[in-house]
Amino acid sequence: MTRTAHRRPVETIPVRPVKAPPPAGDRRRRRLTDQLRAHAFLLGGLLCFAVFSWYPALRAIVIAFQKYTPGSSPEWVGTDNFSRVWHDPEFTAAWRNTLTFTALALLIGFAIPFVLALLLNELRHAKAFFRVVVYLPVMIPPVVSALLWKWFYDPGTGLANEALRFLHLPTSNWSNGADTALISLVIVATWANMGGTVLIYLAALQSIPGELYEAAELDGASLLQRIRHVTVPQTRFVILMLMLLQIIATMQVFTEPFVITGGGPENATVTVLYLIYKYAFLYNDFGGACALSVMLLVLLGAFSAGYLRLTRSGEEDAA
Amino acid sequence: MSTRTLVSPATLARPRGRALYWTAFTGVVLLFTLAFLFPVYWMVTGAVKSPDEVARTPPTLLPERWHPDGYRDAWDLMQLPQHLWNTVVQAAGAWAFQLVLCTAAAYALSRLNPVFGKVILGGILATLMVPAQALVVPKYLTVADLGLLNDPLAIWLPAVANAFNLYLLKRFFDQIPRDVLEAAEIDGAGKLRVLWSIVLPMSRPVLGVVSIFALVAVWQDFLWPLMVFSDTDKQPISVALVQLSQNIQLTVLIAAMVIASIPMVALFLVFQRHIIAGISAGSTKG
Q1: Which residues of A touch B142 (CB under 8 A)?
Q2: Nearest-CA residue of chain B relative to A301?
Q3: Is the dihedral of CA B125, B130, B133, B139 positive or negative?
Q4: ipTM metric
């Protein structure tokens, strides 16, 4: 992008020491030992990828079509798992909650960091303070922030209702109410993760050349027009990238519903990943859990592919 | 940096602009303090309040009486030393395994031209498309088959399969000028020696970034350790907190939450410049 990519000068003719070429047999043996050494370096990492990444991905697909309980031999059942999972009333709730959570997180967790970054970029003092403070919640373990907000959300003595009472507003059930639980969780997730987004936006905003604003101002563009016609187009790439990342992350939400609401009240906060967990560890139904995993995988894989393509084209632009 | 932003310096210099600026500045300071610092303050002080003070409405801003026993009780009753130690072991091991195995693999892919190197790199990058959490169940079954449940290896080994960190390392190694490495080889250094004495010292910044990522990831993770450690004595602090939160006094739980946060917050405060620079740089380059 605007940062000048570090580029090495065009390579001149390499000066290499002239050595007598070794005899052919030697050369082949050299190449073989080189290869053996290269693969020895690769071996440990590669094994970990094979066992904990590639194999589980294939296995998820296989188990999705099996009746699978640990200890007994698996049995092929075709698409039974998918149809059973599909007809589970929790299935609809889980997908609805997950999609709503993602949509709300995009709405809240996307607009607020952008506005905050815009504001911070205009401020000329205490920049380091803002950057540290906004990132502080990110470093607090997610379990701790979930427990912390669970305490704040307590309908009787929690800080959230205390603040509402202080402002003479009606109190809420927060995470204990069926219709407010999901949004309460979105607030927690946004609070906890906003720091990274703000910092990335801030970096993007700082890379916008000032002349663009100057030119726009000379043409008589108002503040809002400058945001619309300079800031947004100039950061479009980062906006899109973060949006995809956030969709991928929020579709896998688990900690907040598990810790704060336990999926309740009335399944209002059961998410897809939570349902996968339940199938595996409560119902001992690994076929169903894998069928669900495959569905989540297919959906999120599409977003990830889009994200990777985007970053790759961004890299090529930068080079 | 005093580059031109949305609002021009001329506008800011006018009295009206200056007044607006300081209003906005105060507003943002208040907002940030309230939104991000206050909850942390509330947690740290909540732990030293007495149990009935913590449940009182309206709440007290400052603890009426100082009860540091909250922290002591948390330390003893919840066996925090044990769980903290488990977390340290898990994080340190994941870090070490990742650093050694990912660095070696990245070096091989970047510099040693292995056959099928392109295919292997493609396979590694393809895992970036697979959202990690969606695969926890088959991964759990694999770990169970290997007999690694309740073993820290269940954290350490899967942590190595981190395409993001590996790619970060490989990209950095790619940038090291060929001449430097060749000069070392002409001087008679083997591949391992080149890696150890030339490549690694030059890669200090990227190794720092990978180290922080690796440590933070393990410390913050919840779902995976929840699955693989059913044995209470082996659980890291995050899992233990949730398991114990049900039947423990609120002030004690809050104290435990503070203690669980201290290591990562301290790490952040010490390395904040590098961490923030790393996040910011990662983005603009895409």
Answers
A1: 51-52, 55-56, 59
A2: B129
A3: negative
A4: 0.92
